């Protein structure tokens, strides 16, 4: 003989477990916090890329005397300037 399974016990277990689950508003708060954090990271990365691009462009405008003052050659300046903006 097999033992009968009482479905009501299963539902009672489900209801007890459901009490420990976060509510919809808690899920949304966590999700919005993570989305905001990710958007801030993207914005910071975009600003850093733009700063690198502008700095490399400025490096190309320096004359040989100024490049010598900072200790790099014209070839080094060109090598730095042709790097993609996302690369350090």
Explain this structure.
The protein is mainly α and 88 residues long. It has a domain at 44-88. It contains four helices and no strands. It starts with 6 loop residues before the first helix and ends in a 7-residue tail after the last helix. The model has no long low-confidence stretch (mean pLDDT 84).
Main features:
rod-shaped; mainly alpha; single chain; 88 residues
Mean pLDDT across residues: 84
Care to count the β-strands? Answer: 0
Major sheet description = none
How helix-rich are the residues, as a percent range?
Answer: over 70%
Unreliable segments of 5+ consecutive residues: none
Euclidean distance between termini CA atoms: 72 Å
């Amino acid at each position: 003989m097999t033992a009968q399974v009482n479905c009501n016990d299963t539902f009672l277990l489900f209801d007890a477990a459901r009490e420990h689950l976060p509510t919809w508003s808690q899920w949304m708060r966590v999700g919005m916090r993570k989305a905001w954090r990710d958007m801030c990271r993207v914005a910071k990365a975009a600003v850093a890329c733009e700063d690198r691009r502008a700095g490399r462009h400025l490096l190309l405008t320096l004359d040989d005397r100024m490049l010598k003052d900072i200790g790099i050659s014209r070839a080094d300046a060109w090598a730095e300037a042709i790097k993609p903006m996302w690369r350090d």
